[in-house]
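step: validate -> pass
step: tokenize input -> pass
step: predict -> running
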Amino acid sequence: MNIDTYKQILIKYWGYTSFKPLQEEIIRSVVEGKDTLALMPTGGGKSLTFQVPVMATDGICLVITPLIALMKDQVNRLNKLEIKSIAIHSGLSAEELDNALENAIFGDYKFLYVSPERISTRLFLGKVSRLNLKLVAIDEAHCISQWGYDFRPSYLKIAQLRDHISDKVPFLAVTASATPMVIDDIMTRLRFREKNVLSTSFDRKNISYLVRMVEDKGTYLIQTLLKAHGSGIVYVRSRKRCKDVAELLAANGISADYYHAGLSDEVRDSKQASWTTGETRVIVATNAFGMGIDKAEVRFVIHWELPDSIENYFQESGRAGRDNKPAFAVLLYSPTDKSRLIDTIRKKFPPVEKIKDIYESLCNFLQIPLGSGKDTVYDFNIQEFVSKYRLPVIETFNGMQFLQREGYVEFTEEINNPSRVHFIVSRDDLYKFQVANESFDSFVKLLLRSYTGMFSEFVAINEEALSRKSALSRDTIYQFLVRLSSMNIIKYIPGKKTAMVIFTEERLMRKALLITTENYLHVKERYEERLEKMIAYADTEAHCRSVFLLNYFGEEADRCGICDVCRKRNELDLSNYEFEVITRSIKDNLTMSSIDAEQLVKMIDHPEDKTIKVIRWLLDHNKISQDKDHKLIWISD
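step: predict -> pass
step: emit ->
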């Protein structure tokens, strides 16, 4: 392999003169035909590891991702670079799916993006072997593991692709975070021919991790941001708080805006662009904000409340300091946060019978008869659903997540699908139509001037833009499209914004609906373990924050020296080596028996003043305590 070839592609299409750490090694591995699991932190350039090598071949790359918004964003970016790409997801009609697959087979496309629930459909499996496939890339690969924090049953079906494609086509699985257990699980479930993990250190040496115990978070945030420099992100857990916090900051002279999934695509794009260019300094957002962020100079990421897992926290906080300059990741923590987070367990895990109630209500809402519905896609308005059946929103959403985990349904994010048009007559027949129907001539010319490719595929159009361009009303534009469609000149699919439900199995009778107790309890236990780890991170005053995070992902590290815990320890004026040696000596003595403080100081073979400093620090951080006789005892690791 000549790496210069791939560097030239990198420069030509993406404008970068060199690869980031690990990108080159992953590309080498893939080009050599090896199944590869790549662990790359947020902002590490995952997409280039499969985009660059495929550009050097005459074939196509199949990219599997659960994030429809990300899929559409990447396809748009690639097409702007004149790299032919196409997407297949649940928001498309059967005709669009068939058309897209035929184009991918015959149309010289380089990238075919597919949502995981589409992989196992008869239509897809019937055509995938005809693709000139050179690589299968699986994004968000942790979703395949039941040990992971975002398990999706549709990912389990990815491995069956191997039965339909050449065994020379390698799999590249990429993820930003995975524990050692999840890493092994990913390779097993994707049927890797041999274990092959490539990863960079998760250590972000430029990020100072801080936890701040505060009751009045609003006041703290205002005071902090008035003193801080640069731009950043404030993460919150609800849409309402998102707007409230942004308005609070703006009222106190801080340039701020809010962002969440409930906003239209246009509004979200506008808000993100304003923040990216620096017009808006602070964006207050739910975890919907993250996809496609390529802003390097983020100086701080602040979490208003505890996330429910280390994985989520690490990924979100990792959006700070991608330019490798000093940055801060701050977690605001109050005594009530812990109890509020623990209370989410109850909401997250509705009783099994309640989950069955939700399933039956869902089937009735969508009017699915028993034994029907398999592989059918339905528009789904959860607000309308819960209102009709008087169901609690959070419990219903979480109940549907369990139905998804058990493989009965797939529940997609809200998709904003633009209107699409496809000419179903030839250019010659269209010309004859225009001559015979003069009233349509100007409108057809407007369409052809405004968009390309409509004879070979469905093309997204914007009725508002056509209205502005032609001085016709939007309704007139719509009527023209509907009439052309009824005359079989075009296929017109009006745009809509909706979430979707895909029934991956036919509707079952209630008694046949299995929510396995083992699976239910297993998922609950894993969730509780992740919560406990997140709370332990927030609570600790004795372990370096960075070391805590890295250890969670199976990585050994020395203390960072710049987190809040390390800074307090630095005040002791002791080297890390001295502190560790004295602490180990104190622990060895106190685990044998309780000892009077003065006596303990004499027993430690180190300068008395340094030993006293360490003892005080251990007392302050609840590592040691005093018994009823005022003797010191070791109480914590």
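step: describe -> The longest strand covers residues 496-503.
step: cleanup -> pass
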